[in-house]
Each structure stands twice: as structure tokens, then as C-alpha cells.
TrEMBL record:
The protein's name in its UniProt record: Carboxymethylenebutenolidase
Keyword Thylakoid (UniProt): no
Record-linked InterPro entries: AB_hydrolase_fold, Dienelactn_hydro, Dienelactone_hydrolase-like
Top enzyme category: hydrolase
Entry's transmembrane regions: none
Single GO molecular function: carboxymethylenebutenolidase activity
């Protein structure tokens, strides 16, 4: 029987207060660090599972709780919670998570990767823009909402995006424009992959029924390979 991935709830200083999150360690006990950024639903079991899956791939994964323990139960509640978390505040809270992660003895890398979904995909880019060289790999999945930054000039990370051709929340034309803007403003290597799928196609726990197993599997494999290659 395979040993269970060690995981725990943790707290750390951020923006003058104590923030909380979920930390998953690989079987080896150490590895490169990755920040996992939640969807607008909150720090759900699904996001914890994403962190566990990264740990199973050899990463030390930290999923910060941006909503202070609250989890949305429907779209209206999720939208309200997201609207109360402006980009600047969310990125500052995440900055504390980066410092905490990179300070762990278990983390073998001097830079962090970051991966996020929906609202978290937007905050992946905001965090990369804010943290500069501290973030070496940024993986946004269909990034929308409050977290999407206006400028990508501070991005030094390599960027691999995963976006949906049938996304009604973030039309694919906007994703193409975002890809071009990141490339132009940051000078970083930017590759977006596009899937014949709807928004949130990676979330196998989403009640909307948008989960697409084949697209999710391909996007995940690409993401893991990308993080391995670009976190140092």
C-alpha cells in the first residue's frame, strides 16, 4: 500500500496578519515549491486535491486560503466573495505565502512556481507581476476575475496558459489578447494552449458539468512538465 502524502493546515505571516493555507509534501519530504491558487469557490477539497497531486509529482505545494476559511456554495456567493478581494490585496496576501514557502527547509528551489484556476488563474499572473524573479514558472488556467492584472511588465516567469475555446466567462479572443500582452510587456517566454472545452474544464468536482477529462489530463501533464522544467 502506497504511503499517504503528508499534508497539513499551516499559518504564516502575511500583510501584517496571520494567513492560513494547506501544505502538501512529497514522499521524499522535499522538492521544488509551488503555490496553488484557488478558484472563486475558496480553499475547497478540490484545491487541496490539486496540491496533493502536485506533491505526488515531487513538489512541495502550498494552497493559501484567500477567503479566510469561507467556502462559497453557489455562483452568486462566490462572485460576491471574489469581488471583496481586489487584485492588490490578494497579491499581497499571496506574497506572504511565497516568502513562507521559499523559507521552508523542505523546499529545494530558490524560486517558486505558481498554478491557479479561474480567479486563481488571474492571481497567478498578478503574483508573477508583483514578485518578479521569485516566480520562475506561472501556470494560469482560464484566469478571470479580480486577480487579472492590468500590466505584466513585472513578470519574469515563464508562462504557460490553459484556456478554453468555449469559455463564456472569458471569451477566447480575450485570452489571445492577454497572451500577446504578456509577451509584449514582460519579454518572458509565453505559451498558451487552447482546448475545445468550456470554462473550468479541469475541475472534476465542479457541479456545472464542465469537466472534460481528456482536456484536463492533457493540461495537467503539460503543467507538471512545465513546472519541473522551470522551477530552479
Amino acid at each position: 500500500m502506497a504511503s499517504q502524502t503528508p499534508h497539513q493546515n499551516v499559518s504564516f505571516p502575511s500583510e501584517g496578519q496571520r494567513a492560513h493555507g494547506y501544505l502538501a509534501l512529497p514522499e521524499a519530504g522535499q522538492g521544488p515549491g509551488v503555490i496553488v491558487i484557488q478558484e472563486w469557490w475558496g480553499l475547497t477539497d478540490h484545491i487541496r486535491d490539486v496540491a496533493d497531486r502536485l506533491a505526488a509529482e515531487g513538489f512541495v505545494a502550498l494552497a493559501p486560503d484567500l477567503f479566510g476559511g469561507s467556502v462559497a456554495h453557489d455562483g452568486a456567493e462566490a462572485a460576491e466573495m471574489m469581488s471583496n478581494l481586489p487584485e492588490e490585496l490578494g497579491a499581497k496576501l499571496l506574497a506572504g505565502a511565497v516568502d513562507y514557502l521559499l523559507g521552508l527547509e523542505a523546499v529545494t528551489s530558490s524560486t517558486a512556481g505558481t498554478i491557479g484556476f479561474c480567479m486563481g488563474g488571474g492571481f497567478v499572473l498578478a503574483l508573477a507581476a508583483q514578485q518578479g524573479k521569485k516566480i520562475s514558472a506561472a501556470v494560469p488556467f482560464y484566469g478571470v476575475g479580480q486577480g487579472v492584472p492590468q500590466s505584466y511588465a513585472g513578470v519574469r516567469a515563464q508562462v504557460q496558459g490553459h484556456y478554453a475555446n468555449e469559455d463564456s466567462s472569458y471569451p477566447v479572443a480575450k485570452a489571445h489578447a492577454q497572451e500577446a500582452q504578456i509577451r509584449e510587456e514582460s519579454g518572458a517566454e509565453v505559451v498558451f494552449h487552447y482546448y475545445d472545452a468550456p470554462h473550468a474544464f479541469h475541475n472534476d468536482a465542479n457541479p456545472s458539468g464542465n469537466y472534460r477529462p481528456e482536456a484536463a489530463r492533457l493540461a495537467w501533464d503539460r503543467s507538471v512538465d512545465f513546472l519541473r522544467q522551470n522551477i530552479s
